[in-house]
Write a structure and sequence with these properties.
The chain has about 120 residues and is mainly α. It has a domain of about 70 residues. It has 5 helices and no strands. Helix 3 packs across helix 5 and helix 4 runs antiparallel to helix 5. The longest helix has about 30 residues.
Length: about 120
């Protein structure tokens, strides 16, 4: 009986992650056709906004942003080969998914912690 619940729970999480990835893929493809690419070497709007926010934020907020950006970088390196970043899920759900993928993708503890920070903020 417990195996059945585990299977249903796992399939539900996989379905939710798949649907969110598909929705994000659709949003990315719709948004990318109308956005012009920046000139090479020119900072993007996101980078400019990030730099201005970093200079005015409190030290704890700056550390949080740095951890989130490092988590995003590690997500792209370790997970981005196969997955689009899904919409934000509760930390408990993302922790279960990341622990599962940690074994399959051989992710370190620190990578897992930073990726979890990125995925839940």
């Amino acid at each position: 009986m417990a195996r059945r619940y585990t299977l249903v729970w796992t399939l539900g999480i996989m379905a939710a992650l798949t649907l969110s990835a598909m929705a994000q893929e659709h949003a990315n493809s719709a948004g990318s056709s109308s956005v012009a690419a920046p000139a090479p070497g020119a900072p993007t709007t996101r980078e400019a906004t990030h730099r201005s926010a970093m200079t005015t934020a409190a030290p704890d907020a700056v550390e949080e942003r740095v951890m989130r950006l490092e988590g995003e970088k590690r997500f792209r390196t370790n997970c981005g080969r196969c997955h689009q970043p899904p919409h934000k899920f509760p930390p408990r759900v993302m922790a279960a998914a990341i622990r599962h993928m940690r074994v399959r993708a051989m992710i370190t503890d620190e990578d897992m912690r930073l990726i979890l920070k990125y995925m839940t903020q």
